[in-house]
Amino acid sequence: MSTAMTTATPTAITSTTEQSNQGAESVFTALQDASNLELIALLFRFGLVEPFLRQLKERAVVFEHNNLSDPNQVAEPAMKEYCSKHGLSNEQERQQWCLKHGMSQADLLSEAIHDWRRTELREQSSSNIESLYLRYKDNLDRVLYSLIRVDDPGLCRELFYAIEAGEISFGEAARLHSRGPEAKTQGIVGPVDLTTPHPEIAGRLRTAQAGQLIGPFEAAEWHTLLRLEYRFDSVYDAHTQNFLEEMNFKSRICGDLKTELQQLSSWLQGQFRDATHNGECRCLARSSTTTGL
Fold it and tell me: What is the pTM of this model?
């Protein structure tokens, strides 16, 4: 039996490898033969069209913005900064980078200038970031808490006094009596941000001290007990500032893409209706056992 297994295993591995290589080759061939229409359809199908459009819109905004440095004047420092950022210390590494990312040398310079001007525009758009931090603090802070939810107010009061007196642990009480999924984790929930819990729970967690037993109170249809275990307070440091600046920048320049998405979707539907009518439409994203997309 051992000998048979030893003999069969390399054959199985070779067969699997060959099938994998054939599958990869068929995908490459299909991509090479795909039309622009089919590639756009795949973006929609795989949920990639929105980030794709965001990148295009961002580049259009940066390119067309008048209150930024002249591309010709910043070309040299922009290229130096881009190469330093990506660890491209010589011409050979730059050439390999271009090949890897499907770019020409002109594309590389364009990317460098775009990054430079994008940074300028982001800095111009980043006023009042500290006030933005205060507005989003509930999204950035994290809390770990214990929760018990029951439908009987009398039981809720009994559990409160029993936990307070040390007659039963919070975790054991949650395991035995809580009606939500927290019963499976001895009442522990989180870490989560303060926008996740029910508002009645979040409001109490926001001002609670670690270890404080809270309740009974009503949250939705439940009679609830609560205990804050740990608070992970966010800090307004360079990392947080950079995160908020990037979020604010993307929100401002891209805005709502619903109109653009709808326009592209409508165009795509029209193209496919015409292609189907003319018998030119082929099946996309089929099973990996086929050679088509």
Answer: 0.59
Peptide bond into 71 cis (omega under 30): no
For the sheet containing 188-192, what is the strand order?
A: 188-192, 142-150, 222-232, 213-219
- What does the pLDDT look like over 52-108, one tens digit per residue? 888 888 888 888 888 899 999 999 999 999 999 999 999 999 999 999 999 999 999
User: Going by C-beta distance under 8 Å and a sequence separation of 6 or more, which residues neighbour residue 293?
Assistant: 27, 30, 31, 34, 38, 42, 284, 285, 286
Q: What are phi and psi of 220, to 5 degrees?
A: 60, -130
In DSSP notation, 45-102 reads: HTT-HHHHHHHHHHHHHHHH-SSS--HHHHHHHHHHHHHHHTT--SHHHHHHHHHHTT
Residue-level pLDDT at 25: 65
Q: Please state whether beta strands 142-150 and 188-192 pair in parallel, antiparallel, or not at all (unpaired).
A: antiparallel
